[in-house]
Specification:
single chain; 435 residues; alpha/beta; six-stranded mixed β-sheet; 19 strands; binds NADP nicotinamide-adenine-dinucleotide phosphate
Length: 435
């Protein structure tokens, strides 16, 4: 029997479990450990609440979780309740699928002023992550700056723009929909340090900005290269750029009944945030591209007024003491996922925060191939029995998948009309609902 512990119950964790089941059949026992009492990681806390079709992939993960040889072991924090070294004594393979839940820090003067938020915090707030339920973002100002030209910047701008009615069918948490309904936002500026041809935004997500009830995108036509250059782009990117060109052609008359403007400011690198005890303005340097398509400052600066800055410039994996880590790239140090004998990483914890949810599937299958090559047959490890004894000795209140199903039922039962669920946002409430 092979015993595998997977740390993290997001997409990378579940695809790894699915792959291990397929590879080893009845000859494997898999524990998926999560520090929270609720599963699915990025699906629950990262994917935007108005993108329910993406969240539907959780049904596939549930099938894995409900099979006989897989367990969800929730409310167990690796590093606090149990160490990686201890897990290594119980399991033949320990796989870190911990994602990249921490923000890459915006390292500019004023970056620590109140009102400067990372996207992990802001996204976590509207998605009901217990760590960010009390964030209380300053939504009283008219101008918000969103830094970054990736899909997270788009999610953030769209969520800031939507009306209460546009959240119908979403599972945005009550505290966020109420706060957003009272917000005074009029201008959302999305800053990209490079140009329209260098965005990291996908067409479907970008296109959504063109169909908002009370907001319209604004793009400067002078920011584009010659139209002919679009033909050289790969098809997805070309579609995204086509959306941007359409936004640039939106007539002023269309904006008449749109009180919110989403302004794309390209070739714009934030250099400082200024204000007296809170954010008042963002200082931006105009950039241009060098021949390697890197952004370089031109020395020309300007400011925009804003009362909140949301930095969407990527994520990092939190280090774990004793586990080799690449500080520059914010992920575990590994050779294709092998960290140390018996210790592996997968998904964003291995390759950094890139790709779609589906990219984690081949990742999970690849790491299981490595495990199969390294552990040709199971050793004499105790597996889950050893973990259970240790957690009981330490008084850890483990949440099982069956408990989670009770939490889920309670969340469905308390949903506001038209919403699939109202999430519990405090760990203690989740645990109480699971009992
Ligand atoms: P991302 O795609 O890597 O985009 C990060 C953006 O931040 C880039 O435009 C980057 O610009 C910019 N940036 C980085 N450092 C900066 C700095 N110091 N100053 C100014 N700008 C800076 O990351 P993400 O948006 O966080 O998304 C993470 C992953 O999740 C991506 O794979 C994304 O596609 C995925 N995602 C998908 C969806 C969806 O499919 N619906 C939704 C959300 C997220 P440069 O290019 O110049 O470095």
């Amino acid at each position: 029997m092979r015993h595998i512990a997977i740390i993290g119950s997001g997409p990378a964790g579940y695809y790894t479990a699915e792959a291990a089941q397929k590879k080893f059949g009845d000859d494997v026992r898999i524990d998926i450990i999560d520090r929270l009492p609720v599963p699915f990681g990025l699906i629950r806390f990262g994917v935007a609440p108005d993108h329910q079709s993406i969240k539907a992939v959780a049904a596939r993960y549930e099938k894995v979780a409900l099979s006989d040889n897989v367990r969800f072991v929730g409310n167990v924090s690796v590093g606090t309740d149990v160490s990686v070294d201890e897990l290594a004594t119980f399991y033949d393979a320990v796989v870190l699928a911990t994602g990249a839940p921490n923000d890459r820090k915006l390292e500019i003067p004023g970056g620590d002023l109140p009102g400067v938020l990372g996207s992990a915090a802001f996204v976590g707030w509207y998605n009901g992550h217990p760590d960010f339920a009390d964030l209380d973002p300053p939504l009283d100002g008219k101008n918000v700056a969103v830094i970054g030209n990736g899909n997270v910047a788009l999610d953030v701008a769209r969520i800031l723009s939507k009306t209460r009615a546009e959240f119908a069918g979403s599972d945005i948490v009550g505290h966020a929909i109420d706060a957003l309904a009272k917000a005074n936002t009029e201008e959302i500026t999305i800053l990209g340090r490079r140009g329209p041809h260098q965005i990291a935004m996908t067409p479907k997500e970008l296109g959504e900005l063109g169909h908002l009830e009370r907001a319209a995108p604004r793009v400067e036509s002078g920011d584009f290269p010659e139209q002919a250059a679009d033909a050289l782009l790969e098809p997805g990117m070309r579609k995204s750029v086509t959306h941007l060109r359409e936004f640039a052609a939106i007539p002023e008359s269309f904006r008449a009944d749109k009180p919110v403007s989403i302004n794309f400011d390209f070739f714009a690198a934030p250099v400082a945030i200024e204000g007296d005890g809170k954010i008042e303005r963002l200082v931006i340097e105009r950039t241009e591209l060098d021949d390697q398509m890197r952004s370089i400052g031109t020395g020309e600066t300007y400011t925009i007024d804003c009362s909140m800055v949301i930095s969407c410039i990527g994520y990092q994996t939190p280090p774990i003491e004793g586990v080799p880590y690449e500080h520059g790239r914010g992920r575990f140090a590994s050779d294709q996922g092998r960290i140390l004998p018996g210790l592996y990483c997968v998904g964003w914890a291995r390759r950094g925060p890139s790709g779609t949810i589906g990219t984690n599937r081949p990742d999970g299958y690849a790491i299981v191939d490595l495990i199969a090559a390294d552990i040709s047959h199971g050793g004499r490890k105790s597996g889950r029995d050893g973990l259970d004894i240790l957690l009981e000795q330490r008084g850890v209140d483990v949440v099982t998948f069956r408990d989670w199903k009770k939490i889920e039922s309670a969340e469905i039962a308390r949903a506001r009309e038209g919403s699939p669920r109202e999430k519990f946002v405090a760990v203690k409430d989740m645990i109480a609902a699971g009992r």
